[in-house]
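Journal club side-thread
Mid-discussion, someone asked how the predicted structure for our own chain would compare to the paper's figures. Pasting it here so we can look after the session.
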Amino acid sequence: MTFGLALGLALLVGLQLGALPWRFRREIWQAQGAFVGLAVGVVIGRLTARRVD
């Protein structure tokens, strides 16, 4: 669920790049990379977490 939401946000931000002036694209790319990095970190964290019963 969280990965899908983060990926969807990253894609939405990516689609908006065409309408923005060039001076803002660098910041948008950085935000998109942060969203994807967050999603990957959450997935890796959940897959490698030790369960305490």
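Post-session note: The longest helix spans residues 22-48.
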